[in-house]
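Re: Re: ligand-bound prediction request (bumping)

Still looking for help on this. To restate: I need the protein modeled with fe (ii) ion bound, output as structure tokens. Inputs repeated here so nobody has to scroll up.
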Amino acid sequence: MNGLLTAAQLAPAVDTYLAATTPERRWDAETSFAWAAADADRLTEGQRSAVEFVTLIEDHLPGYFDVYHRHFPVDDTVEPEVFAHNRELYHFTVRWASEEDTHARALARYQRESGMGVPTAAVLPRFELPYDHPVQFFAYALVQEKATQIYYRQLRAVVDEPVLTDVLTRLSRDEARHFTFMADVVARYLRHHGDAVVEPIRDVVATFRMPLADTLRGYWRWALKIADTARYDHTDAYDSLIQVLDRATAARTDKLDELMAFVAAARTVG
Amino acid sequence: MTASPDLITAQITDSVRAIVADVLSVPADELSTDTDLREVEGADSIKVLRLIARIEREYDVELEDEDVFGVSTIAEVADVVRKALDQ
Ligand SMILES: [Fe+2]
Ligand SMILES: [Fe+2]
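Reply:
Sorry for the wait, this slipped through. Here it is.
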């Protein structure tokens, strides 16, 4: 992949991310929640459906990390400079994976403890992102993390069940940190590579697909249905993307302005 | 009296066009049958899914995923709806 940041250009984003989770702020699915109080009877049908939906999304994350490992390998199949970048990124990826896996565990445990039952593991086909520029993997995840954070917040606002509220609070804080990392990396690409990354980012927005949209039969109907319980629309994240584009660099160009207008137009209104 | 197949397709096409215009907030007369839905100003994959869900409701059909993700124009949407109705 051409157009990669150097390890030194990426490192500050990784450092900031890792520094943001001090040991006191860490949590786990085993000890951080009052599981005995979890009670699905306090949820509506739609809210239970939403919990199942987000459990599936979080559970799907191993496939997502595979994409990163395939595209940013940490071995001698790549040049030394690329290896150095990938090794730096790995500090982030491995922690990120662990956090997302904790999300999957917390949601699955919630389903069991609250009386919703034991979630069935869905075997999914291999996930792939059809990108050829590195910035695209971060721009895609930026939208994904922000959209998820917003959804957890929206769902929490309508839920009247303290344990689920706690879980959703933890989850949305983590997604906010994940978003911050992705935003930081995208901004670094804009600063170091300028207009060369504009078209690739545009491409991500133009071809954006919900995760699992292609892999799970009838998934999209479910996704739209749970959106009626709490607003779920990945274009809600576009305001944040526009802010990142806006603040990344003082050197504004026509191409960048055009990209921001394009993202704004793709935003669902209302 | 039974409507001819062409007439039915034309009716489906018209109502698909009306739904697309409504969901994507564009005037119906600006939409040709071969307009790529995802290229319409302000459209994205979610909006396209929303409008397909609405078309499914109005015609009481359930489209195959391949069709849902395979169609890109109004004519193609009308075509898969027609196919689903025939089943
Ligand atoms: Fe997560
Ligand atoms: Fe996340």
